């Protein structure tokens, strides 16, 4: 596997008529976590979406292993797992079906057993077959998070992943993130909660100052 | 030739556009006066159509401009898509209202012309129908643009629509023509082609002058509209603030 | 495919589209009077216009659900060409909204006094034409995603682009009825379909990227 290196060069993003940030440069190596701080409206979500390729930056470059992530989209997307404010789940389908769909779309072949194990790890063993719409907010979030265990993506971009989770689930998620970073993965996350994200190597980025 | 890319930035384009607006506005007014004078007093009376044909001097340039502007608009939109230059999409959106106006003008004068010539305000002739569809395309473009709040998204979305439209224009045009020949029996035979070939030299000149008047008018209006769009969208940037402060003091 | 399973869980949507189609077509005789000859001449045009409106009605739903629950974002991030995914979605849309119209059309044609040959021609043109409606419509649906009044806007954007299909579709039936061959119309419709197949998913994909931002 490639070593994996994310490099941001002089990034500038604009929302509506407002400039959110400009001249933003940093790089992220394998085995590190980037914690993005900043008040509401400082452009955290936009930054994360820009890195994921959902928002087109006004200027600047996003490089993955030295290649522009926009040009090598399929390559980059294979290494990327983005979880945003929306759960990205089909409410009519069950948690199991939802995860299966994602696995199929990202081209990885996943056995029934693995999907069930992932849901179980997030404490959803009893609602594998229930349609997502009957689950609580926290449970929906957990279903979405179960994807972290199923896809072998290198770069995780998590926008407010701790929202709606109970204490136990927060602990669990931290555990999962730690393991990922320890295995040479990369994580970019934002959170307003005071969560002690203590893993091997943490970088901090403060926006809106 | 000047360096195009230098002027691709709104900040350097703004003052240039200001000068060009005046230039083209004056040229357009002069040509319009000459053109109108020629079309009403110099051009001879048509032996077949009498005085009524004079509306052609507005109708034909308007129809030409309406199609021409759409293509130019699509080119700007394409340029905006490829190079992500803000100015290109601003140009596209500045052209749309003028294009729609000419389309409407062409339809309206066409109706006025059609009444004495064919005895009907409207016939389902291929050209009329295509022109009407063109008006729909313009309206769609402007409606989409105004429905989107984020100006960047608006510019990109409407630009894409303009491109889709311009691919469709020839298909629409040929299908309408095809449709018209199929239904020829029920519609009145249009003699517009005959008029153009039987035109005297002075008529051609008048027509050309009027076309250029319309053309310069379009450039002037589009540029002045671009200037206000620039101010609106770049109101946060430092050069606009400096300029506004300069104007106040 | 995923969209089909989903659509099956919203079965009423399919029925709404089909009934809308039937109602619009049935309104015409009420509006213009029951003279058989007139109705027979109008039949193809009426059925085609109704098909246009019906397929447009369901267009707004094409991406809207995915947009609201965030799956669209995830689809943009899948390591597969977005235009292929769009093509899949459009195909599903056609199967649930276009195909039923094709199947219903002979019945409606009968109402208007069309006979064997013309009925087949009507079905054939709809079979070639409705996929184009779904394809071209997907561009409009993608562009208006998440906008206020998206439904009305989509019709404003998409209907002018539908005109060639309408002309050739209804024209083929008319030409056939007049005893002229309809091969020309049909092959042109085939060409339009191919063109739409190549270009529309790509344009919709680009539009989706713009709209999701």
Describe this structure in words.
The complex is a heterotrimer of chains A (209), B (249) and C (213). The N and C termini of chain A lie far apart (37 Å). Chain A is of the alpha/beta class. Chain A contains seven helices and nine strands; from the N terminus they run βββαββαβααααβαββ. The longest helix of chain A is centred in the C-terminal third of the chain and has 16 residues. Chain B has 249 residues and is mainly α. Chain B has one domain: Up-down Bundle (Four Helix Bundle (Hemerythrin (Met), subunit A)). Chain B contains eight helices and no strands. Chain C has 213 residues and is mainly alpha-helical. Chain C has one domain. Chain C is built from nine helices and no strands. At the A-B interface, loops of A face loops of B.
Number of helices of chain A: 7
Rounded to an integer in angstroms, the radius of gyration calculated over CA atoms of chain A is 17 Å
Query: What is the averaged pLDDT score of chain B?
Result: 77
- The largest beta-sheet of chain A arranges its strands as 6-7-8-3-9
CATH superfamily of the largest domain in chain A: P-loop containing nucleotide triphosphate hydrolases
SSE string of chain A, helices as H and strands as E: EEEHEEHEHHHHEHEE
Number of domain modules of chain A:
2
Structural class per helix/strand content of chain B? mainly alpha
Given as residue ranges, the uncertain stretches of chain B (5+ residues, pLDDT < 50) are 184-196
Describe the largest sheet of chain B: none
- The rounded distance between the terminal residues' Cα atoms of chain B is 36 Å
Count of strand segments of chain B: 0
* Percentage of residues assigned to helices of chain A: 25-40%
Strand content of chain B: under 5%
In the CATH hierarchy, the third-tier topology of chain B is known as Four Helix Bundle (Hemerythrin (Met), subunit A)
The gross shape of chain B turns out to be flat
* Multimerization state: heterotrimer
Distance between the termini of chain A: 37 Å
């Amino acid at each position: 596997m490639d070593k994996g290196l994310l490099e941001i060069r002089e990034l500038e993003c604009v929302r509506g008529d407002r400039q959110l940030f400009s001249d933003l440069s940093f790089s992220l190596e394998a085995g590190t976590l980037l914690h993005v701080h900043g008040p509401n409206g400082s452009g955290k979500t936009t930054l994360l979406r820009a890195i994921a390729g959902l928002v087109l930056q006004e200027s600047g470059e996003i490089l993955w292993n030295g290649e522009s992530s926009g040009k090598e989209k399929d390559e980059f997307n294979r290494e990327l797992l983005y979880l945003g404010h929306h759960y990205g789940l089909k409410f009519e389908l069950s948690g199991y079906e939802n995860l299966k769909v994602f696995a199929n779309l990202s081209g990885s072949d996943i056995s029934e057993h693995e999907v069930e194990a992932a849901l179980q790890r997030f404490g959803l063993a009893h609602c594998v077959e229930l349609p997502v719409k009957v689950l609580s907010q926290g449970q929906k979030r957990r279903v979405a998070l179960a994807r972290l265990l199923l896809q072998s993506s290198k770069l995780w971009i998590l926008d407010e992943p701790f929202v709606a989770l109970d204490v136990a689930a927060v602990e669990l998620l931290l555990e999962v993130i730690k393991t990922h970073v320890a295995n040479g993965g990369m994580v970019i996350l934002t959170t307003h909660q005071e969560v002690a994200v203590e893993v091997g190597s943490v970088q901090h980025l403060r926006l809106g100052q | 030739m000047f360096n195009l890319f230098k002027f691709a930035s709104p900040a350097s384009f703004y003052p240039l556009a200001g000068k060009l607006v005046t230039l083209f506005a004056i040229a357009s007014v002069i040509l319009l006066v000459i053109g109108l004078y020629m079309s009403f007093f110099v051009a001879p009376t048509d032996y077949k159509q009498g005085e009524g044909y004079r509306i052609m001097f507005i109708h034909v340039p308007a129809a030409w401009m309406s199609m021409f502007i759409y293509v130019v608009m699509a080119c700007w939109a394409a340029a905006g898509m490829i190079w992500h230059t803000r100015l290109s999409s601003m140009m596209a959106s500045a052209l749309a209202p003028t294009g729609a106006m000419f389309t409407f003008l062409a339809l309206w004068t066409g109706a006025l012309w059609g009444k004495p010539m064919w005895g009907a305000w409207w016939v389902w002739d291929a050209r009329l129908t295509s022109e009407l569809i063109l008006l729909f395309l313009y309206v769609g473009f402007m409606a989409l643009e105004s429905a989107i709040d984020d100006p960047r998204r608006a510019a990109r979305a409407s630009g894409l629509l303009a491109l889709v439209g311009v691919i469709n224009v020839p298909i629409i045009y040929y299908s309408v023509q095809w449709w018209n020949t199929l239904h020829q029996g029920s519609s009145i035979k249009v003699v517009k082609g005959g008029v153009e070939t039987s035109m005297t030299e002075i008529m051609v000149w008048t027509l050309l002058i009027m076309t250029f008047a319309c053309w310069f008018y379009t450039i002037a209006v589009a540029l002045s509209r671009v200037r206000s769009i620039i101010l609106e969208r770049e109101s946060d940037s430092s050069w606009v603030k400096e300029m506004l402060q300069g104007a106040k003091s | 495919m995923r969209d089909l399973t989903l659509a099956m869980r919203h079965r009423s949507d399919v029925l709404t589209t089909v009934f809308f189609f039937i109602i619009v077509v049935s309104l015409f005789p009420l509006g213009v009077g029951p003279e058989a000859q007139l109705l027979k001449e109008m039949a193809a045009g009426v059925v085609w216009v109704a098909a246009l409106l019906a397929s447009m009605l369901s267009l707004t739903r094409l991406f809207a659900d995915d947009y609201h629950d965030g799956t669209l974002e995830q689809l943009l991030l899948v390591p597969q060409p977005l235009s292929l995914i769009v093509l899949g979605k459009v195909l599903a849309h056609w199967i649930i909204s276009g195909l039923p119209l094709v199947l219903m059309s002979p019945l409606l044609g009968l109402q208007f006094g069309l006979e064997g040959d013309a009925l087949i021609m009507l079905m054939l043109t709809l079979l070639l034409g409705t996929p184009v409606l779904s394809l071209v419509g997907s561009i409009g649906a993608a562009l208006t995603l998440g906008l206020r009044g998206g439904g009305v806007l989509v019709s404003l954007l998409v209907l002018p682009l539908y005109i060639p299909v309408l002309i050739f579709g209804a024209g083929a039936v008319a030409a056939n009825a007049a005893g002229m061959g309809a091969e020309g119309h049909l092959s042109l419709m085939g060409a339009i379909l191919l063109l739409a197949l190549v270009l529309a998913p790509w344009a919709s994909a680009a539009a989706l990227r713009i709209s999701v931002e």
